[in-house]
Amino acid sequence: MRKGQTVPPTSERTRTRGAPLSLGDRLFAGSATGAGVLILLVLAGVAAFLVAEAWPALTASEDEIPGGEGLVLYIWPLLLGTLLSATLALLMAAPLAVAIALFVTHYAPRRLAAPLGYIIDLLAAVPSIIYGLWGFSVLAPQTVSPSGWLAENLGWIPFFAGPASSTGRTMLTAAIVLAVMILPIITAVIREAFLQTPRLHEEASWALGATRWEMIRLSVLPFGRSSMIGGSMLGLGRALGETMAVAIVLSVSADAFSFNLISSSNVATIAANIALKFPESSGVAVNVLIASGLVLFVVTLLVNMGARAVINRRREFSGAN
User: Fold this and answer.
1) CA 102 to chain centre
2) How many other CB atoms are found less than 10 A from the CB of residue 261?
3) pTM score
4) Which helix (DSSP H) or strand (DSSP E) does residue 2 occupy?
5) What is the pLDDT, as a whole number, of residue 15?
6) What are the residues whose beta carbons fall under 8 Å from the beta carbon of 153, sequence distance 6 or more?
7) Which of 44, 78, 182, 289 is most exposed, with the fewest beta carbons within 10 Å of its own?
8) Contact present, 179 and 92 (Cβ < 8 Å)
């Protein structure tokens, strides 16, 4: 500060920094606020539509519901099938996504890391119906022999109780297809988080004599913990709502839920059930399908809210701090 120059009062300095300085600033602030409000309005509109269209099914008698056992017993097996397939897909995809992200960011040579990351990102651009056709034509036949081995040797576990399917169109195959579909989404989020690890944290670990794995365990993984949770929940949301791939791969032949992953007696997921039955439904049956969609909407919303709560709770313990 030059000699003789006076410092403006604190309130004046704060007001100068906080006030918009130009028309562009005001337009940007207004457009950002409008975009946020628009998202909330769209979400509220979707929820209102689902509730309004599902109301006739919610108030209908048990005899009017397909199956004649009531709305809850109609949706409950579908919900369990949805959660089972999405959870299995997440359990397979999340550890693999973390391993791929670590390899691309900290192990692979620079000439290999960039093309490999690009190829993995391209998997997200493949249409879901292509994944479904691949799972039906290629993956399902390849799972027949392993499923038979699981039934013979691990049949005492409810997940692998026989008899094994002769076509391979099982819940296990559907979960593998979903895992491949959500893998690039989770990998992209985690990879970008690992790349943002403060260089000083990594250099401090090296200076203390840490090995590469110790540096990753003490610096990279704590910093990317929130992103690993967020990316996993983003992939879980994709798996919960996936429709065509599951509808093509899964052989639906049962109305009751089962934990058996290799049997041909499978219950559909909510999204696949809607896609398969909506064109032929009419009257209350349509409202029942929309009611199941409302349940899926609520489940997805709860999953994302739970993930946000976990991320906010872990933020103060993040390696970034």
Assistant:
1) 20
2) 24
3) 0.82
4) none
5) 46
6) none
7) 44
8) yes
Domains and CATH numbers, the chain: 69-317 (1.10.3720.10)
Cβ(73)–Cβ(268) under 8 Å?
no
pLDDT at 123: 85
- Residues β-bridged to residue 252: 266
Secondary structure (3-state) at 266: strand
Predicted confidence (pLDDT) at residue 161 exceeds the cutoff of 50? yes
DSSP, collapsed to helix, strand or coil, labels residue 209 as: coil
Number of continuous H segments (helices) and E segments (strands) in the chain? 15, 0
> Residue 179 pLDDT > 90, yes or no?
yes
Contact 290, 50 (CB under 8 A): yes
- Distance between CA atoms of 92 and 69, rounded to whole angstroms? 35
SS3 category, 173: helix
> How far lies 212's CA from each of 96, 97, 205, 231, in Å?
19, 19, 9, 24
CA distance 170 to 139: 11
3-state secondary structure of 315: helix
Element (H, E) at 67: none
What are the tokens at 77? 């097996």
pLDDT value at position 316?
A: 53
